[in-house]
Write a structure and sequence with these properties.
This protein is α/β, with parallel strands linked by helices. The chain has eight helices and seven strands. Bound molecules: NADP nicotinamide-adenine-dinucleotide phosphate (NAP).
């Protein structure tokens, strides 16, 4: 089960947080992994971890706001590993800021990294996946994606980007289904990563969020990466266009 031997995966925003654990677990399942982020050195450290565990990976610097770097990442991956089977669009930024203080630059930065970056990466790998009639695109959304009855103050730009990912996922799944390419989204709840540690969240907001989680703790990055491996595997071949929530029960309260 969940054997990814012979598969090649790209993970964006992979030098730390969930991108790092997606890379480690995909490699553990047998995939060759392209570990990409804006900081090459830290990507290389993730590659070392993968190699020490007996896996295969390469590090590539890729800023997802730079189309040339995305195209370069894809062509380097193909040169090195011959193909691309799995794309994990994981990159993301999250900056709390009240709507009234939000600048156009704040809005554009978040949308360009969190949403346009997903579009550009999917666009860059889709031709390869269409050619080989196989692919898995996994987009990391959030419970802050809207349509779930819960809003998040100070995150209008972030929520707009994550909601966009869900619509993008559903539409792309329809268009790529004829080529045996599945496209799914994962909506994590609050996960203990450097992102959560660094956001300037009002302590009362964090307290209210934590009080709402039935499992009474943040999720661990590996608890999202397990689902990434499942969605990338043959066992998930009939799942497409879906958003799967992993939130310790947050949405059930
Ligand atoms: P993280 O620890 O901040 O990791 C994200 C990585 O992406 C960082 O290394 C970050 O670098 C990098 N990055 C930022 N801008 C980039 C760009 N333009 N090009 C390439 N890489 C870039 O975040 P995480 O918590 O693991 O989150 C991973 C994904 O899950 C994100 O999409 C996030 O929105 C989503 N998510 C997280 C949570 C949570 O509670 N943690 C909940 C729901 C959804 P910098 O550090 O320099 O920005």
């Amino acid at each position: 089960m969940f054997n990814l031997s012979g598969k090649v995966a790209i993970v964006t925003g992979a030098r730390r947080g969930m991108g790092r654990t997606h890379s480690l677990l995909l490699a553990q399942a047998g995939a060759k992994v392209v570990v990409s982020d804006i900081d090459l050195e830290e990507c290389e450290q993730v590659v070392v971890e993968i190699e020490e565990a007996g896996g295969e990976a390469i590090a590539i610097k890729c800023d997802v706001t730079n189309k040339k770097e995305i195209d370069g990442m894809v062509s380097t991956a193909i040169k090195k590993f011959g193909k691309i089977d799995i794309l994990v669009n994981n990159v993301g930024i999250c900056q709390f800021k009240p709507f009234v203080d939000l600048t156009d630059e704040d809005w554009e930065k978040t949308i360009n990294i969190n949403l346009r970056g997903y579009y550009w990466c999917a666009k860059a790998v889709a031709p390869e996946m269409i050619k080989q009639k196989f692919g898995r695109i996994i987009n990391i959304a959030s419970i802050a994606a809207g349509q779930v009855g819960v809003g998040f103050q100070g995150l209008t730009h972030y929520c707009a980007s994550k909601g966009g990912i869900v619509g993008f996922t559903e539409a792309l799944a329809l268009e790529l289904a004829p080529y045996n390419i599945t496209v799914n989204a994962i909506a994590p709840g609050v996960i203990d990563t450097p992102m959560v540690a660094s956001v300037k969240m009002d302590p009362k907001t964090l307290e209210a969020i934590m009080a709402r989680i039935p499992l009474k703790r943040m999720g661990r990055p590996e608890e999202i990466s397990g689902l990434v491996v499942f969605l990338a595997s043959d066992e998930a071949s009939y799942i497409t266009g879906d958003m799967i929530i992993v939130d310790g029960g947050y949405m059930s309260m």
